[in-house]
Write a structure and sequence with these properties.
By secondary structure, the chain is α/β, with parallel strands linked by helices. It has one domain: Alanine racemase (TIM Barrel), CATH 3.20.20. It contains nine helices and eight strands. Strands 7-6-5-4-3-2-1-8 form an eight-stranded parallel β-sheet. Strand 3, helix 4 and strand 4 form a beta-alpha-beta unit. The longest helix has 18 residues. The chain is globular. Bound molecules: pyridoxal-5'-phosphate (PLP).
Length: about 220
């Protein structure tokens, strides 16, 4: 079933890219594996997806050695006291949402001589999300974080408010793209989940983060 679901997702990605003259090769499917078993994750990897996302460091720590080689990425809120462990697991942290967190990542990265790639999480909708930088603060935040030598900003991430109608997510994705275009056009955009990834691709997503559409029936 996972294999079939992934095949369907791939076809949907190809279709939306074809309709919008987007190179499907630029889209990375990140499979979000929170709450899923190692057996399920191995099935994902065997179907050709080796970018895997987790929400919690502890859960990732229990799984990642059993699923290797793979690119593990952190998509959930990261607490400062988990940073050290996170750096040993993740090649990209999508969810940097404060300067102090970036500073802690830098501090720990210096110790192990790692350049840690990160995305900045942006709160594109004022009311719904708890975490993320305010869009109007972003330029200043970037300047601060760029001073940290062992942290490298690779792009921006957002989570649109959940709705049944994917079109309602479009303005939030468009906002993230506009911010990116202004700050650094070469940065990546991590946006789009099971319910809205096609709209996210239309608005310029580079990384789509998918869970239910891969693991569950009839999503
Ligand atoms: C769980 C999760 C996803 C995947 O969500 P689905 O709706 O299952 O596709 C994507 N991004 C983040 C940050 C998540 O926590």
């Amino acid at each position: 079933m996972i294999k079939e679901n992934i095949e369907k997702v791939r076809q949907r990605v190809f279709a939306v890219c074809a309709r919008n003259k987007i190179d499907p090769g630029k889209i990375t499917i990140l499979c979000v594996t929170k709450g899923r078993s190692v057996g399920q994750i191995l099935e994902v990897v065997n179907s050709g997806i080796d970018h895997l996302g987790e929400n919690r460091v502890q859960e990732a720590a229990e799984k990642y050695k059993l699923v290797t080689p793979a690119h593990w990425q952190m998509v959930g809120h990261l607490q400062s006291n988990k940073v050290r462990d996170a750096l040993g697991i993740f090649d990209l942290i999508h969810s940097v949402d404060s300067v102090s967190l970036a500073q802690e990542i830098n501090k720990q990265a210096v110790k192990i001589n790692k350049i840690q790639d990160i995305l900045l999480e942006v709160k594109t909708s004022p009311e719904v999300r708890k975490f993320g930088f305010k869009p109007q603060a972003l330029a200043e935040v970037c300047e601060e974080i760029m001073k940290f030598q062992n942290v490298k900003i690779k792009g921006l991430m957002t989570i649109a408010p959940f709705t049944d109608n994917a079109q309602e997510a479009r303005p939030y994705f468009a906002k993230l793209k506009a911010l990116r275009d202004k700050l650094n056009p070469s940065w990546l955009l991590s946006m789009g989940m099971s319910s809205d990834f096609e709209v996210a691709i239309e608005e310029g997503a580079d990384i789509i983060r998918l869970g239910r559409v891969i693991f569950d029936d009839n999503v």
